[in-house]
Write a structure and sequence with these properties.
Elements (H helix, E strand, L loop, with lengths): L1 H7 L1 E11 L4 H11 L3 E10 L2 E11 L3 H15 L1 E8 L1 H10 L4 E8 L4 H13 L3 E7 L16 E8 L5 H15 L2 E6 L9 E4 L10 H9 L2 H12 L5 H10 L7 H8 L7 H10 L3 E9 H11 L3 E10 L2 E7 L5 H14 L7 E5 L5 H6 L2 E5 L3 H6 L2 E3 L7 H4 L4 H4 L1
Parallel strand pairs: 9-10, 9-13, 10-11, 13-14, 14-15
Antiparallel strand pairs: 1-3, 1-4, 2-3, 5-7, 5-8, 6-7, 11-12
Length: 411
């Protein structure tokens, strides 16, 4: 009777293996567990500069653990790795299982470089919020030692954390403060199923995909640069109504030869990372759109250059080869951008939670708040304060890291 009871009992054991990595380590150790018909309850492995860290939690029938541990110990010695054993009680295991139902969050650290203090600061906030770090991974490629040889390097580290923040708003506020003071970006996203299956991404154009405002370029050619630029800046800061400012600026372009637009388009300063980002998004099946308060001519130029699927912008009226100072159709303002985002999502049969919007100005806020993920890109202060996510330290291909892409997959 005692023997039968003993055979029904189980033991749970956690083993941690560390040492120089080489092919066959995991296969050799799991083969021993297979030989004893052990159940693997959890497994995780990481390799940092060819140094292996492997953890396996398994369950076995009581009385067989001694033989399993002995065989594992001998095999670890043969493989030149260290192995450590820790017993796990059923109550400890059950507590771990119960934690699996808690919310999961993704915290992304992004910048030209990341220092130990940056990771420490973010980790401290996580601890203050009673969250537990499940995993940390580097999404960018390895950093060069001599940054002067590659000044446009990128560094991105992703934390996967579990639990419910004590105060999410306070957590977000602390991240914004750290980001501002330390000069790197921090993104906090709930790790829902929608985060892993985004399908549509919409971009503002001026000062987002390109590093200029096209209307300012046109105004310079028309000799009214200072007047238009002053109106543009006030509009982007949200100090005056976008539609009013748009009509005022377009009226000042009256008489400009339309051929100037081609010359400006050919010389547009493309934002760092646009080409790389679009190549990856197209390769992975995303639908892309330009929703701009700028002009259709330049949006179409970018569409053909980079392969965007949709362009919605403002059409300038032309007569006898010159701009009339008027526009054709409805103004694409902030409200219209949000409407177009919803419309394209509907056409593409995409849940709004699967959409992303990227922009820099106050007129982008409705679009950013409508999308499942709204990202303020090198944005004005008012926009950064309102948007939950922002990128201010690297190029626009930083969007890829907020989506969980790794350089090793996309380079």
């Amino acid at each position: 009777m005692s023997a039968d009871n003993n055979s029904d009992r189980h033991e749970i054991i956690l083993i941690n293996i560390n040492g120089q990595d080489r092919p066959g380590v995991t296969a050799a150790l799991t083969s021993i567990l297979a030989r004893y018909d052990a159940d693997i309850l959890d497994i995780g492995q990481a390799d940092i500069h060819h140094f292996l860290s492997l953890g396996i939690m398994f369950r076995t029938t009581s009385g067989r653990s001694g033989d399993i541990l002995k065989d594992l110990l001998f095999k670890a010695y043969d493989l030149g790795v260290k192995i450590r054993f820790s017993p796990v009680t059923e109550s400890e295991y059950q507590a771990w299982v119960n934690r699996q139902g808690k919310n999961r969050w993704i915290i992304t650290l992004l910048g030209r470089s990341l220092a130990a203090r940056h990771i420490a600061m973010v980790s401290e906030v996580v601890a203050e919020q009673d969250l537990n770090i499940d995993a940390i991974q580097r999404l960018t490629g390895r950093q060069p030692l001599d940054k002067s040889q590659q000044p446009l390097t990128k560094a991105c580290i992703e934390f996967s954390v579990r639990g419910t923040p004590r105060d999410r708003d306070e957590m977000q506020s602390r991240f914004i403060q750290i980001s501002s003071e330390e000069g790197f970006d921090i993104s906090l996203q709930e790790d829902t199923m929608y985060r892993r299956c985004r399908r549509l991404i919409c971009f503002d154009m001026d000062s987002t995909l390109i590093q200029t405002e096209c209307i300012d370029q046109l105004a310079e050619r028309a000799g009214v640069g200072d007047q238009v630029k002053a109106i543009t800046e006030r509009a982007m800061r949200g100090e005056i109504d976008f539609n009013e400012s748009f009509r005022e600026r377009v009226a000042l372009l009256k008489g400009l030869d339309v051929s100037v637009m081609h010359d400006i388009a050919e010389k547009l300063p493309i934002t760092e990372g646009v080409g790389r980002m679009m190549e990856v998004l197209k390769r992975t099946g995303y639908k892309t759109a330009i929703l701009s308060g700028g002009f259709t001519y330049f949006g179409e130029y970018l569409k053909h250059k980079f392969g965007f699927d949709y362009v919605y912008a403002n059409e300038l009226e032309v007569k006898d080869g010159k701009l009339t100072g008027n526009y054709v159709g409805e103004i694409v303002d902030g409200k219209r951008k949000a409407e177009l985002l919803r419309l394209i999502a509907q056409v593409e049969n995409v849940n709004i939670a699967q959409t992303i919007a990227v922009g820099d100005g106050a007129n982008d806020l409705p679009m950013l708040s409508t999308a499942g993920l709204g990202i303020a890109f090198h944005a004005k202060p008012k926009v950064k304060e309102s948007a939950r996510q922002s990128i201010s330290t690297i190029g626009i291909d930083g969007v890829l890291y907020f989506l969980g892409f790794k350089d090793s997959y996309i380079s």
